[in-house]
Amino acid sequence: MNEHAEQHVAPPRGIRVALFVTCLADLLRPSVAFASIKLLERAGCDVIVPLQQTCCGQPAYNNGNYEDTIPLAKQVIATLEGADYVVVPSGSCAGMITHHYPKLLEGQWRDRALQLAANTFELTVFLAEIVRIKAPGKAFPKLPAVTYHDGCAGLREMGIREQPRQLLRELCGIEVKELNHSDVCCGFGGTFCAKMPEISAKMVDDKLKNVMATGAGILAGGDLGCLLNIAGRARRHGEDIEVRHIAELLCQDLDTPAIGQGT
Amino acid sequence: MEQHSDTFLENASAALKNSAQAERRDFIALFAPLIRTAAVEGFAEFDTLRAHVKRVRQHSLDHLEYYLGKFEHEAVHNGNHVHFARDGAEMNSIVLEICQQHSARRVAKGKSMVTEETGLNSFLQRAGLQVMETDLGEYIIQQAGETPSHIVAPALHKSAGEIRALFQSKHDLGARELPETVDLVSEARQVLREHFMKADVGIIGANALIAENGYSMLVTNEGNGDLCANLPRVLIVCTTIDRVLPLAQDATAMLRLLVRSATGQAQTCYTSFYSGPRRENDVDGPIETHFVLLDNKRSDILGGDYREMLECIRCGACLNHCPIYTSVGGHAYGWVYPGPMGSILTPLLTSLEQSNALPNACTSCGRCAEVCPADIPLPDLLRDLRHEETTKKLNAPRWRRGLKMHAWLARHPPLYQALTGMVIPVLNLFGRRRGSFKRLPLASGWTGQRDFPAPQKGTFMQLYKAKLKRQAAQEAKRNHEH
C-alpha cells in the first residue's frame, strides 16, 4: 500500500487531473498517453494536458547536471501545479517529481515542489487507490499470459507493486505470471544503457531470460524506459514476446503494434 | 594498492567475457540476497535497530575527536600504544618501525581492507619481512598474487578447481591430490598453523573501536584473527578513525546488523574483543599491543558532503545486491573497494579524476540503499559524485554537451515540439514496417546492443493538438448549424 495514497479519500467525480505525458511517451509511444487519458476519463476525471510540457529533467539530473535541471524542474512545477492531481504514466518520472524536485530546490520553489509532490501520482497508483477505477462493461478479449516488470524507481521510490497487478486482475481478469528476481534492475538506467552498453546488455539478458522463463506472451510494465530496453534487446535476439505499457493493456488496446513490433 | 579504475569499462568488458567467473557471480547474485533476506526477516527489530545505530554513528562522527580521545585514553590505560597515521604511507612506516623494534621477521596477518588500502603487505615485504595472510580467502589470493574481489569474501572469484591448481603449484603436496573442498581447507589450515606458531608480529583489523573501555572488536568466521592476536609476541591493530563508537553496547548493536547483512548469519563464529597486552597472571596473549588509526582523507570526508559514507560498516550487502557488481565483479572497479560503496569511497580516498567512471556504474535502481544496514543513501551520493564530475568537466564532452543541449531544448517547449515534431514522423516512416531500427545515427550506444523501437506516427503533442483542432472544428460546425 502506498503511504502517500492512504492520506487521500476517493475524490468526487469531475476532479481536474493534469496528465504529465513524459517525454518517452510523447516521442516514441503516444498510445500510452492516449490510453492514460481514456482510463482517467473512464474513472470520472476531467483530464487536461498542459501543452507546455516536455521532459521532467531526469537525463540531466541523473548525470549530475543539477544546474540545468533546476530551471526545468521549475518549469514543470509551474506547468502542472494548477490541477487537483497530476498523473504520470511512469514510476521514474513520478519519482523525479515527488522525490527529487524537493531535494533540488530551495525556499518558495521547494514549497511549491512539495505541494506538487503531494498531488502527483503514478498512473496505476492513482487508478487503483485514488479514483478506484471500475471494470468496464464489455468483456475483455482473451489474452496471452501476462508477466510484469517492476521498474526500480516505481518499486522503491513510489511503492508500486500491487497496484498494477490489482488493476490487471480487476479490469482485465488477468493474474500476472510473476517474474523471478522481479526486483532486479533491467539495465536501462537512462543514459547508463548507452554509456555502459555491455554491462547493460548483460543485465537486460538476465531480465529477458526470466521473462521468457515465465512462458508469458506479453510483458507489461509501467515505465517506457525499461520497456524500450527490454523490447529492443528482445528484437535483437528474435525473442517472441510482446512488450506493452500497462496503460494500453488496461485500455484493451491490443491493435497498436507492441513496442518494437512492425505494422 | 595500484589503481586502475580509469579503465573500468575495459576491465568490465574483460570480466564479462570470462564465462566461468560470470557464472559464479550469477550464483552469488541469487544466493547472497536470499540468505541476507532470511536473516533480516528472522530478526524482527532490524529496521528499528538500523535507525538506532544510524543515530549512534551520527553522534560518534559529530563528536569524533572526543571519542577518539576517550578511546586513546582508555586504550593507553589498558597498556596499549596508540598511533595516529595521517595517510597510508605513515601507517605503513609506523607498522614497519614496530616490527623492526622487535627484530621481527615473520608477520601473521588477519583480514583487513584498511591495509589493502595502504598497501601494507608489499611495503613490509620490500623491507624484508615475510607477511602471511591468514584469512583463507586472503591467503588464496595472496598465493595467487591477486587482490580481493569482494570486501567480505576476497577470493569469491576463484573456483575450487583454480584453488586446487594454485595449491598444487605453490605447496609441496607430494602425492596428495586434494580432491574435495574440505581437503583444500585443511591443506591451507596446516600451512597457516605453522605460520601462526612462528610469527613474531600479528596484524589484524577491527570492526569497531569502543571508546568507553578502549577495546577493539573483530568478527571472523575462521578464528584466524584470534590466532594472529594471541600467538605472536606483538599485536598491531590497524584500522581507521571512523570505526570508533561510544559504548560496548553500540558495537554489539552494530554487530547484529553487520553479520546478518554480510553473511546472513545471526552471529559469526568468532566475535572477539581485544583489550591490550598480556597481564601479569595471564597465560597467553601478546606482550606488546599497538593500535594504528588511519585517517587517509577521512577527516576531509567528515567535513564534506559525503560524510554519511563514513557510517559504512563494510558488510558488503550493497555489493551482493548491485546488479552491476554481480555482472562485472570486484576487480573491474580497479581498486580496494568495489560495488556501490566502493564507487563512492574510491573517488573520495583516491581522486575523482582517476575514478570518475565508477559513480557512473549505477542505474539508480536503489537496491543497495534498500539493504544498506547503515542506511546510507548510496544512489544519491553516487549522483552527487556525477555532479562533481560534470562540474569539473571530467566526463566526455559529447555527453556533457548533449545533455546540456537536451535540457536547454526542454526548457523551450515550442522549439522542442517543433523539432521533435519533424524528426519523429520521419523515424516512423522508415521504421514502422520493421518496428525497430538495427542501427540509428547518433544512437550507437543504444543500437550497439539492442534495437531501437520505432516511434509511432507522430509525437503525442502533434497528435493531441491535431485532435483538439478537429474537436474545435466539429464544435464550431455544430454551433454554426444550430
Write up what this structure looks like.
The complex is a heterodimer of chains A (263) and B (482). Chain A has 263 residues and is an alpha/beta fold. Chain A has two domains: 3-130, Rossmann fold, CATH 3.40.50; 146-250. Chain A has 14 helices and seven strands. Chain A has helices at residues 3-6, 23-28, 30-42, 58-62, 66-80, 91-104, 107-119, 123-130, 152-157, 162-172, 192-195, 197-213, 224-237, 246-250; strands spanning 16-19, 46-48, 85-88, 120-122, 146-149, 218-221, 242-245. A four-stranded parallel β-sheet of chain A has the order 2-1-3-4, with helices on both faces. Chain A has a three-stranded parallel β-sheet with strand order 5-6-7. In chain A, helix 8 (123-130) crosses helix 10 (162-172) and helix 12 (197-213) crosses helix 13. The longest helix of chain A is centred in the C-terminal third of the chain and has 17 residues, at 197-213. Chain A is globular and about 50 Å long. The model of chain A has no long low-confidence stretch (mean pLDDT 94). Chain B has three domains: 1-42 and 316-395, no CATH class; 43-301, Rossmann fold; 412-481, no CATH class. In chain B, 54% of the residues lie in helices and 11% in strands. A six-stranded parallel β-sheet of chain B has the order 1-10-7-4-2-3, with helices on both faces. In chain B, helix 2 (19-41) crosses helix 12, helix 3 packs across helix 12 (248-263) and helix 16 packs parallel to helix 19 (378-391). The radius of gyration of chain B is 28 Å and the shape is elongated. The termini of chain B are far apart. Chains A and B meet through helix 2, helix 3, helix 4, helix 5 and helix 9 of A and helix 1, helix 2, helix 18, helix 19 and helix 20 of B.
